[in-house]
Design goal:
With 262 residues, the protein is an alpha/beta fold. It is 39% helix and 15% strand. It has a single domain, classed as TIM Barrel (Alpha-Beta Barrel). Strand 2, helix 3 and strand 3 form a beta-alpha-beta unit.
Length: 262
């Protein structure tokens, strides 16, 4: 993988919304709509999909032979050991996972994940040659300065143990917690301000292959408003309609980015 900020990212997390039959059907419909899209074939837009753990193999099989990549929604920070119920990053990579999301608001809230665990999970992703999709963002609706302080602190903690991987591809998903599942996303002004601050912080930390994407009720029509400092979108429920995935992809392609590879 080489760095090119003109390569845009579309991430899709299916969370735990769909059962096996629905997930496979959705994946097949998405594949039929986008696999031959010029943006995908040219690798100027990269799409990664994060199904639930038991369905990773099914989704990998659907997208086998395409440019669409698959990852996981979580991982454990140790490679092996007596950790009942956890999932090894080694196994995820062996399955074919290229990406893994880390530190999502729901993981912090429902499972009480803390900054130390998230930092260790980020290191585990790097160590096993997966791209970490590090989820950050303020919990409550606050002013830009307060949101920036909270978000930057999360990034610093997440990358604390990973200084040796500064040249590895890294994705930061800015998802203000108050906007997740909301009817509308944060304002374009707010998103651009925070994502610009994130870009600056990553530069100061010395991470050279970074993409900042926005999640939190992201969907069709948003990218054109936030493209100033945003390298892509992280979609949730808005992507449950395969047609919406195609719509977002078309919106990215309108920008006609310079060809590159991620």
């Amino acid at each position: 993988m080489t760095n090119n900020k003109d390569v845009k990212l579309i991430g899709i997390s299916l969370k735990m919304y769909m059962d096996r039959v629905a997930t496979i059907k959705w994946a097949e419909e998405v594949k039929s709509k986008i696999q031959d899209h010029e943006a995908i074939r040219s690798k100027e837009v990269r799409i990664f999909i994060l199904p639930s753990f038991p369905l990773i193999v099914d989704v990998l099989q659907v997208f086998n032979g395409t440019e669409i990549q698959v990852g996981a929604q979580n991982l454990f920070y140790e490679d092996s050991g007596a950790y009942t119920g956890e999932v090894s990053p080694v196994v995820l990579r062996q399955l074919g996972c290229d990406y893994v999301s880390i530190g999502h608001h729901e993981r912090r809230t429902y499972f009480e994940e803390n900054d130390d665990q998230i930092g260790k999970k980020t290191l585990a992703a790097f160590r096993n040659n997966m791209v970490p999709v590090i989820c950050v963002g303020e919990e409550l609706f606050v002013d830009d300065e307060s949101a920036e302080l909270e978000t930057i602190s999360q990034i610093q903690s997440a990358l604390l143990f990973s200084s040796e991987y500064k040249d590895s591809p890294t994705v930061i998903a800015y998802e203000p917690s108050w906007a997740i599942g909301a009817q509308i996303p944060a304002t374009a002004v707010h998103i651009n301000h925070l994502c610009g601050a994130i870009q600056s912080e990553l530069h100061q930390l010395g991470f050279t292959k970074t993409w900042v994407i926005y999640g939190g009720s992201a969907g069709p029509g948003l990218y054109a408003q936030v493209k100033e400092n945003v390298n892509g979108l992280f979609l949730g429920r808005m992507a449950h309609d395969p047609e919406a995935v195609l719509t977002v992809l078309n919106e990215f392609w309108i920008e006609k980015p310079v060809a590159g590879v991620l």
